[in-house]
Design a protein that fits this description.
The complex is a heterodimer of chains A (332) and B (506).
Chain A: H1 2-16, E1 29-33, H2 40-56, E2 60-64, H3 71-79, E3 86-91, H4 97-100, E4 111-118, E5 121-126, H5 134-143, E6 149-152, H6 158-169, E7 175-178, H7 182-190, E8 196-200, H8 201-209, E9 213-218, E10 249-254, H9 260-274, H10 277-285, E11 289-293, H11 295-316
Parallel strand pairs in A: 1-2, 1-3, 6-7
Antiparallel strand pairs in A: 3-10, 4-10, 4-11, 5-8, 5-9
Helix pairs in contact in A: 2-9, 6-11
Chain B: H1 2-7, H2 9-12, H3 14-32, H4 38-48, H5 54-79, H6 88-99, H7 103-137, H8 141-152, H9 155-158, H10 163-178, E1 180-181, E2 188-189, H11 203-219, H12 239-261, H13 267-281, H14 295-318, H15 324-335, H16 344-347, H17 349-371, H18 374-382, H19 385-404, H20 407-425, H21 431-453, H22 458-467, H23 469-484, H24 487-505
Antiparallel strand pairs in B: 1-2
Helix pairs in contact in B: 3-5, 3-17, 4-5, 4-15, 5-6, 5-7, 5-14, 5-17, 6-7, 6-14, 7-12, 7-14, 7-17, 7-18, 8-21, 8-23, 10-21, 11-19, 11-20, 12-13, 12-14, 13-14, 19-20, 22-23
Classes of the chains: A alpha/beta (332), B mainly alpha (506).
């Protein structure tokens, strides 16, 4: 009896060992999500993955590996084999790692499988704030130095870059209060702990619709269909034209030495999944612009994003290293 | 009338009923295994239930949540390994009860109290959700900081014989909690350049090591001692017992709902604060706290289950998660095409009553599944040490690994286990260490946020402490609780009060 049990266990162990030299994918794929459960990156990735699973014909096991502004997940994926079985599912943050000295790698050192969608940054303010648009906010901040409390998500986060962009045009003395993410900061805004918060449209749109906060600015060159009557910021600060459009994005990445045919398979799967009606509907309702791009197009997008963001934080004075050190060109 | 039909939806539909039951059953075991967290289970279920109908998916997840929060008490009572941080306070008196041969009754009592707590949470959710969520939002960083200070004062309750050793242990916990990237500036703290330390030391790994492993090591001293015979004739607690603790349970549950509804705190802090509250208001416990006081079991178990209803309050009314699990629920609703936010209740009013009904149902299943199989579980404690100790090690290692699928956490867990063993040997209590780890982040972040908002001006910081009624109330509580523990209180203030009472009587 004991013998039979042992041999069964041994057989099971062999069956569980990965099959060698089979066609990709021959086993489960690990998807490492850079941000925590319940965040927007998490929601996007969990919505797109089931479609990709169908196309690829295998399971994608999603794990949240948070911390270090996403650098921990990135380093983790790059420490694994470049065989396409470990995917990095992340947001825009790594494009700032080099100048902020958080890590010596960014997305330009990996292969983009698919850039799924991009968001539009807006400025929201608590309802009883004494300003209703960017010009009024700027005037108020100038008249009351240090009075305006702006929520922030730490150096290199969306808020810091948006604020640095504004700062490049007009110097404002505001108090910046860091939070763990845009969720907690938007909560604090409703409680009156902060006055203004640059946030991605999708994160705040439901609160705006319900009248719990107001939109005072749109970080774009053109008006947005979800925000009628809100002028693009370039009307107030025309100097920003050369930096916009700019916005956070969600993408799936693999290690640089992943074989080309594996990347192609993954790209097809994720780009197809991004076009599914329910994913499209999710992105629309959250105010994200669907992209679903890969290859050269994706690389160009990443390079442009990195160039704008790196230089803007460098000029604002909170970069630890010059973008020049890494050969990052200044945006023209 | 509509509300009632939505409420009863999951009760009447057989498939929803079965899914809720299944979820609750699974939840109890997910909750009982340390390291397997409800958050993780629910996240996995999001992908798993992607193609399901949204109601089916929600039933399963709500069941897991309700069952999971309760399940944490099982291993806390039986093996001294809390299944989740919200069961830490349960272990403090639950495990000593099991050691005295009353594991069965302890589990029975904790089940009843969890269910009572659960119901109170649900009732508050059903009748006062909008008011509570507005109240929860009004907490400013300085208020969160004061909550953390209130929590830290628990060191006094947990310190055991020597307050100095308790403070030392608490400070050590705080230090452990600060390892990693600074949450506000992303600067490295105590990481020595090691990327693996960026995320800090996982509190669950510290918890499993300090409670589970150190206890197992401690048991090695008593290998020759026979295991305590468990009394299993009485599982469902006496009616008189339930009546006796009902008041405490209601108070703890109220505390649990509020702490649960706050977006920055959850069941773990609620349970610990309820334990402290119980210790403070219980004048003459039958058994001293820490040695198996039933009050010390009733309070945290009511509070952590009440926190479930609490966490749903901001989530359903405003789309703001009350804890990590409801954050995942929000993600799930998005994926199922709903827009969880402040408009959810206007756009989908059925969601609210459906959830309330479903939580109620899950809570009833907790009662049913909780009270069955206790005899079997209680036997675990009677296991010979030769089986029990390896079992604790196995469970601890699996638990530590499954937090983050990382081997590093196993080493941390074992390291803290050995450290905890020596600390216990030299009379240091381990409760304050865990307390420090849990509270350090809350305190650290919010103190700094508060002082940054005042532009680092201490004067206006203290002025604001007194300006808002909530802050003033919290500050007064801190001062009073602190004073009541000092000789000043006993010598001058108490006689003053006593004097007044005398006069009133005369």
């Amino acid at each position: 009896m004991k013998k039979r049990l042992l041999s069964t266990i041994a057989a099971l162990a062999f069956a569980a060992a990965p099959a060698f030299a089979a066609e990709y994918p021959s086993k489960d794929i690990q998807g490492i999500i850079q941000w925590g459960a319940g965040g927007s990156t998490d929601a996007v990735m969990r919505a797109v993955s089931p479609h990709a699973e169908k196309v690829l014909g295998t399971d994608i096991v999603l794990t949240n590996k948070t911390g270090g502004v996403g650098a921990i997940a990135m380093k983790y994926v790059n420490a694994k084999k470049g065989d396409g079985y470990t995917l990095l599912m992340g947001a825009e943050n790594p494009q700032m790692y080099k100048v902020l000295d958080l890590a010596n790698i960014d997305y330009n050192d990996m292969i983009p499988v698919s850039i799924l969608a991009r968001g539009t940054p807006i400025f929201v303010a608590r309802n009883d704030a004494p300003y209703n648009n960017m010009q009024e906010m700027i005037d108020y901040a100038k008249a009351n130095p240090g009075k305006v409390k702006v929520g922030s998500t730490g150096p290199g986060g969306l808020t810091s870059i948006v604020m640095a962009m504004v700062d490049s045009q007009v110097k404002l003395d505001v108090t910046s209060i860091p939070y763990d993410g845009d969720g907690p900061a938007l909560t604090a805004l409703q409680g009156g702990a902060i006055d203004v918060m640059p946030s991605v449209l999708g994160a705040s749109i439901e609160h705006v619709k319900a009248g719990r906060m107001k939109v005072i600015g749109l970080m774009d060159e053109t008006p947005h269909p979800l925000l009628p009557g809100i002028d693009p910021i370039t009307k107030t600060l025309p100097g920003l034209e050369k930096l916009l459009p700019w916005g956070p994005f969600f993408g799936v990445f693999v290690k640089a030495d992943t074989p080309a045919d594996v990347v192609t398979k993954l790209s097809t799967a994720f780009n197809e999944s991004a076009q599914q009606p329910d994913f499209k509907a999710l992105m629309d309702s959250r105010g994200f612009t669907l992209m679903g791009i890969s290859g050269k197009e994706a690389q160009d997008f990443l390079t442009a994003y990195r160039s704008v963001s790196s230089w803007i934080v460098y000029d604002a004075g909170f970069a630890k290293k010059s973008p020049e050190e890494f050969g990052i060109k200044r945006p023209e | 009338m509509d509300a009632l039909s939505y409420f009863a939806m999951s009760w009447l539909d057989p498939s929803l009923l079965i899914l809720t039951a299944l979820g609750t059953f699974l939840g109890i075991y997910v909750g009982a295994i340390p390291g397997l967290s409800v958050t993780m289970a629910v996240s996995i279920l999001i992908s798993f239930t992607f193609s399901w109908d949204v109601n089916d998916a929600l039933c399963l997840m709500v069941g897991i949540y309700m069952g999971g929060v309760y399940g944490g008490s099982r291993t806390a009572i039986l093996l001294n390994i809390p299944g989740a941080p919200s069961a830490i306070a349960t272990a403090l008196d639950g495990y000593p009860l099991a050691q005295r041969g009353e594991a069965g009754e302890a589990i029975g009592l904790s089940t009843i109290m969890s269910v009572i707590g659960g119901f109170i949470g649900i009732i508050v959710l059903a009748v006062a959700a909008p008011n509570v969520s507005e109240f929860a939002l009004s907490f400013q960083p300085r208020d969160y900081m004061m909550l953390a200070v209130l929590g830290i004062m628990l060191v006094g309750s947990l310190a055991g014989d020597s307050l100095a050793k308790g403070i030392f242990a608490g400070a050590m916990g705080m230090l452990i909690g600060t390892v990693g990237l600074d949450p506000l500036t992303a600067e490295e703290r105590f990481t020595f350049g090691v990327t693996e330390l960026w995320n800090g030391i996982n509190p669950v790994a510290v918890m499993i090591g300090m409670f589970g492993i150190s206890e197992a090591l401690n048991q090695l001293h008593h290998l020759d001692k026979m295991a305590v015979k468990q009394k299993i004739d009485r599982i469902i607690p006496h009616w008189s017992n339930i009546k006796k603790y009902f008041g405490l349970s209601v108070q703890s549950s109220t505390l649990g709902v509020v702490i649960g509804a706050l977006p920055g705190t959850g069941g773990d802090i609620a349970a610990l604060m309820a334990y402290d509250h119980a210790k403070r208001i219980t004048k003459n416990p039958e058994v001293p706290f820490g040695k198996g006081a039933k009050e010390g079991l009733v309070a945290p178990e009511s509070a952590n289950n009440a926190a479930v209803g609490g966490a749903y309050i901001p989530m359903l009314t405003l789309g703001i998660p009350g804890d990590a699990v409801t954050a995942v629920f929000i993600g799930a609703l998005f994926i199922h095409g709903l827009n969880p936010g402040p408009l959810l209740l206007t756009e989908k009013p059925e969601m609210f009553w459906f959830t309330v009904g479903n939580l109620t149902l899950a809570n009833i299943f907790v009662l049913i599944f909780g009270l069955t199989g206790i005899r079997l579980f209680a036997k675990i404690v009677e296991c010979p040490k030769g089986i029990l100790i390896p079992l604790i090690f196995l469970l601890s290692i699996v638990g530590a690994y499954s937090i983050n699928n990382s081997v590093a956490d196993i080493w941390w867990m074992l390291g803290f286990g050995v450290l905890g063993y020596f600390m216990k040997m030299y009379g240091y209590q381990l409760g304050p260490v865990i307390l420090g780890v849990i509270l350090s982040r809350l305190m650290d972040e919010n103190w700094r946020r508060a002082i940054i908002s005042e532009r680092e001006d201490l004067g206006s910081f203290f002025l604001n402490l007194a300006s808002s009624p909530l802050s003033a109330f919290l500050l007064t509580s801190i001062v009073l609780i602190f004073l009541s523990q000092t000789p000043v209180w006993a010598r001058w203030i108490r006689p003053l009060w006593a004097g007044k009472e005398d006069k009133a009587q005369a």
